[in-house]
Amino acid sequence: MNIKAWDHLWLIEGLATLSESEMMAFIFPEKIRNSQQYLIFDILTYAYDLDYDDVDLWPMNQRVEISEEIFKKFNFVSYYKAATILRSLKAAIGNETWRKGIQIFLQQMQFTAAEPSDFYRALQKAYDEENQKPKIDIAVLMKSWENQPGYPV
Question: Of 86, 106, 118, 123, whose CB neighbour count within 10 A is largest?
Fold first, then answer.
């Protein structure tokens, strides 16, 4: 699975960063007390402060017009802000729903390129199957988070 456009680099890198912190805590529980605490307090605070303070930073979704802009996408926002926002989404829908949504997403996109809407559809499918709670529209929830710089509102 890959991304359809560099515009959505945050999806791959944010998922990888979130997965990395969770796997490190699983593999080395004696060394990493709480990867989520690290992700929340250290990285989230820094990512939002960096994003808030630097007017040159763009939202997670930012159109790449020329090849030189690709390298600028490999930044703190693509890795860590994206990971913390995905972690918030995971907390909102629950671990089991998240896990099922990831499985659906990877199965559907295993031989093709994805974009955030593909990811949201997979999570929405898992959420709808797992929950009788009030309906959450994952794509709508995530749009403001991915399309504006600074703190999501």
Answer: 123
Measured between alpha carbons, how far is 34 from 138 in angstroms, rounded to an integer?
Answer: 27
In angstroms, the CA 153 to CA 151 distance is 6
Rounded Cα distance between 58 and 150, Å, is: 9
Helices (H), 3-149: 9-27, 35-37, 45-53, 68-73, 76, 82-93, 95-109, 116-130, 138-147
Read off the pLDDT of residues 25-62 as tens digits, 9 standing for 90 and up: 778 777 666 555 666 666 666 656 665 555 456 778 77
Which of 18-27, 35-44, 117-126 has the highest average model confidence (pLDDT)? 117-126
Give the span between the Cα atoms of 51 and 45, in whole angstroms. Answer: 10
28/13 Cα distance (integer angstroms): 22
Two tokens at 63?
A: 């159109």
DSSP state of 81: I
